[in-house]
Specification:
single chain; mainly alpha; 2 domains; 6 helices
C-alpha cells in the first residue's frame, strides 16, 4: 500500500510538472507573438515622434512583455528570487503606467524598496546556507580522508610488524654472534 501511495504521489508530481511546462510553452508563444506584433507596427514609432501620448500604450505593451518573461522564468524555475522580480515589475508597472496619486507612488516606492530588501535578505540567507553545506561537505571529506589514511597506515603497520618473540630471538642471535658463543 505504501508503494502505491509513493508511486501515485510521483505520478501526480510528474503530471503537475508537465502541466506547468505546457503553461510555460503557452506563455512563451504569447510573448513571442506579442513581440512580433509590437515590432511589426512601425507606425507607432512615427506616431511617437509626433505625439508623445503614444508612448504610454507602447510602454504598457513593453511592460506586459517583460512581466510575461519574468512569469515564464518563475514557471520554469520557481524560487524566491523570481517571485520577487515579478512582484517588483508588477509594482513598477503600476507606478509608471497607471494614473496614480503622489501618495500611491510613494507607497509603490516603499513597496519596491521592501521587496528589494526582502530579496536581498533571502539571497544572503541562501548564501549562508550554501556556505554551511560546503563547510560540512569539506569536513566530511576531511574525515573520510583521515579515515582512509588511518586504514592505510594500519595496513602498512600490520604488514611490517613482527611478532615480539621473533624480535627477541633475532636480538638474542645477534648477541651470541658478537660474544662468539
Amino acid at each position: 500500500m505504501e508503494k502505491f501511495k509513493n508511486r501515485f504521489k510521483k505520478d501526480i508530481q510528474r503530471l503537475c510538472e508537465t502541466l506547468e511546462m505546457a503553461v510555460a510553452v503557452i506563455v512563451l508563444v504569447g510573448i513571442v507573438l506579442t513581440i512580433f506584433s509590437l515590432l511589426s507596427d512601425f507606425e507607432i514609432f512615427h506616431a511617437m515622434l509626433d505625439d508623445t501620448t503614444e508612448f504610454k500604450p507602447f510602454l504598457e505593451d513593453i511592460f506586459v512583455i517583460v512581466i510575461g518573461i519574468e512569469f515564464l522564468q518563475m514557471l520554469c524555475r520557481p524560487n524566491s528570487d523570481n517571485v520577487m522580480e515579478v512582484l517588483i515589475f508588477l509594482v513598477a508597472r503600476h507606478m509608471i503606467i497607471g494614473d496614480t496619486t503622489p501618495m500611491e507612488d510613494f507607497i509603490s516606492v516603499i513597496s519596491v524598496g521592501l521587496l528589494c530588501v526582502l530579496r536581498r535578505y533571502l539571497h544572503v540567507t541562501k548564501e549562508k546556507e550554501r556556505n554551511k553545506e560546503k563547510e560540512q561537505d569539506k569536513e566530511k571529506e576531511r574525515d573520510t580522508e583521515k579515515e582512509r589514511d588511518r586504514e592505510k597506515s594500519g595496513e602498512e603497520n600490520t604488514g611490517k610488524e613482527k611478532h615480539p618473540d621473533a624480535e627477541h630471538s633475532a636480538g638474542a642471535e645477534k648477541m651470541q654472534e658478537k660474544t662468539g658463543a
